[in-house]
Write a structure and sequence with these properties.
heterodimer, A: 371 residues, Immunoglobulin-like, seven-stranded mixed beta sheet, four-stranded mixed beta sheet, 23 strands, 7% helix, B: 471 residues, 21 strands
Chain lengths: 371, 471
């Protein structure tokens, strides 16, 4: 009888202990109950005004759910109710007529809605619409073509003059950025290259309004390389080529002018060519008045700055004052994809809004469907 | 077969569906085999204390299954082939205990698995896909050991352990490697008297699956399903890893009351609690989701033997599941699923002579499914009537040759098929067994054909088996 009791008690104890280990608590809050309210304002000559009856889009990269559309009411407000808890990008774009010119302006805000205890809460935020004219980094092609030989030497960067006047590239510096403090007033630099000429005052390298300029890592026809033949770009006619003057045996297309480093004025330790991360990086174009990167580059000299990253969990590297958020989420390396501004020169100082992934690079021109 | 064994054989038959808890509603059960062979009924009951010893035996078995999912869901394989080899042996250790051991090797090839990294995509609420198409081969052994001992008068204790390792490899980039390891530990007690019996058992279940995809010159683009409609976008990376852990506990008991062999009443209850959690990870863990299944299964039956020629069995069954799933990204409830099934069955066994047995049966019942997703509101609510009719015979063609035939026809309401209301299915099992001086050799053929209600192509599953049962 003692044996029987021992067996039964042992089994009961084992089952009870196993039950305890397995027990999980069911969450009290259901998903799909988040609410967002956005107020949209337009920056006008009379100050900020409520944007009435303007379209607003809400999209998330977290899920495959469709973009939601709505229009602001008479208070410039729009509400999205019963949506999943996620990170959203809320965008608004409109065409305005400014000094007899139709201009596209836009604004966006990133809204993270987390599940909390207050079921009926509504996340409130606002968008201030605007856009900035000037010389812009319009496209960054870094991912490399579809290949299995780790080829990414066809990288290029495209500038666009989104202004009414001619700008001069003389003495400007082009930077690959390191990680800066997000509220810093200087930029940490990984690589620095410089256009020839005198900063600010030089007039040798003009760029007219509406003109594109291509800066090639290596200015040759990359389609001549067997494994990537027909899959990439011909950069033999690029406008500029990066050239590291201390790189042994560096390729140099004699027909394309150089943007140089270790040229006696700007210096860097790296002996290789200008190249950025295949899935994104921070880059900046500066006027060249500060070219000593050892103590950082003054952000007041920045003409344009962008940050691209394929990963939504990427840790931001560029100060908010230059770029509010990074773009390019979902960019895939060795895919032939490129990131380009939505419209030529369109800039809200937020790469998450301004840039879109293109399936193919477009050196020297804007992607056709947006022309 | 003495009287006790007969009673318990029938009792286990009635309980069989109680313990087939993890399975979907079973079809194609060869009733005659279950009546005849305690081994087979044991594989339904799972309670190791219920296992009955008949004689020492050794069975070698090879099987090939060809499946053609003419109609299939997005992430189901279009076709599959399974090659299986099995060896099992039953040995008496002493007068009060015996041991059963088996080893099985499976080689499963699943073809055209569009994007799925999972062996069974629809078996989990947090399944993963990537950019690959292609075929996957799964292969690996399973070991099983059962020990049954009489620990006191009429009281039996059984313990069973299962251990399986399986490896999968997809043949297109990013060539997902899957390593699965599962083990179960099953304990049971069974108290058997002439006129009644009572038993209880518990089973602990542990399953770990590890996935790794590498696309070194490019990036894997994995996506995690949260339910069956919403996809959570994972970050592309050159190496994508996932881990899935499942644990479960099943516990139950049964009671049998009988008056000789003429009337046997049995009833049983089984409870289930199972949890599953999934996480993606790189250098750190990124939990994605966990879900829990709770279930209960009630089963009762009455078997009446009005004469030596006829046995009549009436049985009823209720099965209820409740699942909930939590996103570990947002810590919210993202899905709930209720399933209920109630069946009533009647079967008649007619045995006019030792050379002929025939049976006929039918089962009818209702099922209902309520599936809700909350990330983006979705619901699938369906209910319907399921039924089947089956019949078969065991016939001795000669003194050494035996033929079994089983036919089945029925209708079932499928779950997680969004665009069809029901399947109609037909099944045929033919088993030919020949006695030789060295043992039995049996050939088995089985074919199941399912026709979806939307008129799409049929699903067919054909099996060929060869076994050698050493005397």
């Amino acid at each position: 009888m003692k044996t029987i009791k021992t067996w039964i008690i042992s089994i009961a104890v084992i089952l009870f202990l196993a039950s305890c280990f397995l027990s999980l608590d069911k969450p009290a809050q259901k998903d799909g109950l988040a609410n967002i309210a956005i107020t949209v304002k337009v920056d006008t000559s009379d100050g900020m005004e409520l944007a009435i009856n303007v379209p607003v889009t809400l999209e998330t990269y977290d899920y495959n759910i469709k973009t939601l559309y709505d229009t602001t009411d008479s208070n410039g407000r729009v509400e999205f109710r019963n949506i999943p808890f996620a990170s959203y990008m809320v965008r608004s774009f409109i065409d305005i007529i400014f000094e007899d010119e139709t201009r596209k302006i836009g604004g966006a805000v990133k809204v993270d809605v987390f599940a909390g205890d207050d079921y009926d809460s509504i996340k409130v935020d606002s968008i201030q619409m605007g856009s900035y004219k000037g010389l812009k980094i319009n496209e960054m092609y870094s991912a490399g073509p579809i290949n299995n030989i780790f080829y990414f030497y066809d990288q290029f960067f495209e500038l666009y003059n989104y202004s009414d006047t001619t700008v001069y590239l003389d003495g400007m510096v082009f930077l690959r950025l390191g990680t800066s403090e997000l509220f810093a007033d200087t930029l940490r630099v990984t690589n620095i290259y410089q256009f020839p000429g005198t900063p600010k005052t030089g007039r040798e390298y003009p760029m007219g309004p509406g003109e594109f300029v291509v800066l090639a890592q290596k200015a040759f026809n990359h389609n001549l390389i067997g494994p990537i033949k027909g899959k990439t770009v011909d950069l033999s006619n690029a406008d500029w080529e990066f050239f590291n003057m201390i790189e042994p045996g560096a390729y140099n297309n004699p027909n394309v002018p150089n943007i140089t480093t270790n040229n006696g004025q700007v210096t860097q330790k790296s002996k290789v060519d200008f190249m950025v991360g295949v899935t994104g990086d921070g880059i900046a174009l500066c006027d060249g008045t500060d070219y000593d990167q050892t103590d950082g580059i003054d952000i007041n000299t920045v003409i344009d700055c962008i940050e691209i990253s394929s990963s939504p969990t990427h840790t931001k590297e560029v100060p908010y004052s230059l770029d509010a958020d990074f773009g390019g989420i979902g960019l895939t390396k060795y895919s032939g994809q490129s990131v380009e501004r939505l419209w030529p020169g369109f800039d809200t100082n937020n790469s998450a809004i301004d840039f879109i992934i293109r399936e193919k690079p477009t050196p020297g021109y804007q992607y056709e469907s947006n022309n | 077969m003495n009287q006790t064994i007969k009673i318990f054989t029938i009792a286990i038959l009635i309980f069989s569906s109680v313990f087939a808890f993890e399975d979907d509603f079973s079809k194609q059960v060869n009733k005659l085999e279950m009546l005849k062979d305690p081994m087979n009924t044991y594989f339904f009951s799972h309670n190791p204390a219920n296992m009955l010893y008949k004689e020492n035996s050794e069975v070698y078995y090879v099987k090939t299954v060809f499946g053609n999912n003419g109609y299939h869901r997005v992430y189901d394989a279009a076709t599959f082939q399974n090659y299986k080899a099995d060896y099992s042996t039953l040995r008496m250790i002493d007068e009060s205990s015996f041991l059963l051991a088996s080893i099985t090797y499976d080689d499963l090839r699943m073809k055209d698995m569009y994007g799925s990294r999972e062996k069974d995509f629809y078996d989990d609420y947090f399944s993963t896909i990537d950019s690959s198409g292609g075929n996957t081969a799964y292969y690996g052994p399973q070991l099983s050991i059962l020990y049954n001992v009489k620990i006191a008068d009429d009281l039996y204790f059984g313990v069973k352990g299962n251990y399986g390792v399986e490896r999968g490899l997809k043949d297109t980039f990013p060539e997902t490697i899957t390593i699965m390891r599962n083990s179960t530990y099953h304990l049971g007690l069974d108290y058997r008297k002439e006129s009644f019996g009572i038993g209880l058992h518990g089973r602990y279940y542990d399953d770990q699956t590890y996935y790794e995809s590498v696309k070194s010159y490019s990036e894997v683009i994995p996506k995690t399903y949260m339910g069956y409609n919403v996809i959570y976008n994972e970050s592309p990376s050159s190496t994508s890893k996932k881990k899935r852990d499942r644990n479960g506990l099943e516990y139950g008991g049964h009671v049998r009351l009988n008056k000789g062999e003429s009337i046997i009443f049995t009833t049983g209850i089984t409870g289930l609690y199972r949890s599953s959690s999934s996480e993606m990870y790189t250098s750190y863990s990124k939990p994605r989701g966990q879900w829990v299944r709770q279930g209960i299964n009630l089963c009762s039956g009455v078997t009446v033997n009005p004469s030596r020629l006829i046995s009549i069995q009436i049985d009823g069954e209720y099965l209820g599941y409740y699942d909930w799933g939590e996103s570990l990204v947002t810590n919210t409830l993202i899905l709930e699923n209720w399933e209920k099934m109630g069946h009533l069955g009647l079967s008649v066994l007619y045995q006019p002579s030792m050379a002929l047995k025939a049976y006929l049966g039918s089962k009818i019942g209702s099922v209902s499914y309520k599936y809700y997703e909350y990330i983006q509101s979705f619901e699938d609510i369906r209910s319907g009537v399921e039924w089947n009719v089956y019949g078969g015979t065991e016939l001795y063609i000669s003194s050494k040759t035996k033929l079994n035939i089983n036919l089945e026809f029925g209708k079932e309401v499928p779950k997680f098929y969004w665009d069809i209301e029901y399947f109609q299915y037909t099944g045929v099992i033919i088993n030919l067994e020949q006695l030789f001086s060295f043992g039995y050799i049996a050939l088995k053929f089985e074919n199941i054909n399912k026709k979806p209600s939307n008129g799409s192509e049929n699903i067919s599953n054909m099996q060929f088996g060869l076994s050698y049962h050493r005397k």
